[in-house]
Amino acid sequence: MYPRILQLGRFSLPTYGLLTAIGLVVALNLAMRLARKIDIPAEKIWNLGLYTLLAGLIASRLLMVVTHLNLFCYSPLWLLGLSPTYTPWIPWVSAAI
Prior knowledge:
mainly alpha, 4 helices, 2 strands, flat
């Protein structure tokens, strides 16, 4: 599997990110189709899926902070995903979690 599907200068599109986004959209569309069959408003299913995605992103960031607290105490900007210097190992740490 290729680690990056697209590389344009400093911008890169990772394979896992693209496949995760495609999987999310397909799953939400299937859930909306099933919701229509059992007379549940499709908008509620879509909103539930987006809330679940947001909660998952927040929870994963909190777990990363808790498990690597010494790194985040060293540089608090990393809490927001900001880094004062280029550190190529940060994406690998977040991807491993």
